[in-house]
């Protein structure tokens, strides 16, 4: 091809092609990856603010692509949603998280909660709850050990989501509202949601030290959630100062690099659910 005035254009198209071909590569890779077992789960501890005790884990999917290396979920989850592949992938994630949690329970772990992210398309499947209960049965994990993480955008359609959430709770399965404060949040919806846990999004925690207003907002969310009877987990805690503020505000739990990044199963020390000191 020519190296002239069309350079700008060529650059643009080749960029587009890169984007498209990467997308195609990821898309076909997603299918192959599921067959050749390139996916794995990492687990991030959810910790008691006051005692430092691990109360739960959040399962976070990882993809070890043979050529691209670790592909972050932010890149392939949306694609898996678009292509519908999130349905079988999501089922595998749930199955694997429940299997792992049941195994840790067998080994004597005192941690009693495994949180699993659920995507929109998954939640919309007519047999969603049946799929979840079948996984609980086959893995032997007690329903109250499982917490499904739903975002505000997933539960937007109240006519569908509220009855389904109630059926989920009726089975003893827990629900958390993820990324609270980022989406289409309407405080009035909260009274209708049969949730156990509210997760305050990282963006709030990033700004909590910025001033009175930011602090006041976080404080209000914590108090409101507690008055509604929800467990509160603050996400994305990276600094001691943030943790100190959380304890002042009587927030129950947190999750973040300050305690631990997400880790592969082998790196989780389960017996007392403690942070691995070594
Ligand atoms: P999320 O559900 O909000 O998960 C929390 C994300 O924050 C994770 O990113 C986690 O690694 C990261 N994180 C935790 N602590 C800190 C911290 O202190 N600082 C910073 N900067 N980040 C922290 P990850 O694993 O890359 O996942 C990104 C998103 O991808 C998740 O956001 C979730 O929306 C989606 N995702 C991940 N795993 C799954 C899954 O198994 N199923 C579905 N449907 N979505 C998933
Ligand atoms: Ca989550
Ligand atoms: Ca989140
Ligand atoms: Ca998020």
From TrEMBL:
Residues 23-276 form the EAL domain. It comes from the Bacteria. This is Signaling protein YkoW. It comes from Marinococcus halophilus. The chain holds residues 532 to 809 of 812 of the full protein.
